[in-house]
P-type ATPase A domain-containing protein (Phytophthora aleatoria), 209 residues
Amino acid sequence: MKELEDYQRPTNVADFVAEVGVDPALGLSRDDAMTRRALYASMQAYQEALPREATVRRRVAAAQGQSASRRMRMDAMSLVYGDVVELKAGDVAGADLRVVECSDDCVVDQTTLVGDDGEDEEAGQGGSRKHVTTDTPPLHIQQDPLRCGNIVPMTASVLQGTAVAVVVSTGDRTLWGRMVTNHEWPPAPGTVLTKKEKGNEEEQTSLIV
């Protein structure tokens, strides 16, 4: 895909078609077209899922040398490890977060990561909607952030309630970032990522529904 200002580049027609990767006499093959369509859809989904802003607490100097906190709205991509983030209904997590405070009714939607199964996490195995808590999860699910109530993964949106959380990972190191890097995102339409247990091990499967 080209930006508007690049439509005339390269100026030479032969160089242009070589860059685009198409023979004008033949056109694209069906497989090439499908591959490019899938890539474009992934890019669109990526842009739509990308968090825009985050509300963070910043320590500032106050009178008599005391410290005070200031609430700031900033670009979500500027979050760093250790940032304290405030979440409310409608917010989208701009990083992987560990919850340190939350209201009893706080719920997040993880559809961007797991697909839409229409179930709560408590009702199924790691559903798209998850109740948020500060409690440390049982040992057997601690390696699965999608099932941990005290973890709000990047791109998850807050459906209701409020929370205060600390950034534990950003960018490519987040669960979402790793899924994108490993070409495991976005989930195919109608796909629900689930976990099934085998003894003490867990296996990730994709269910087409």
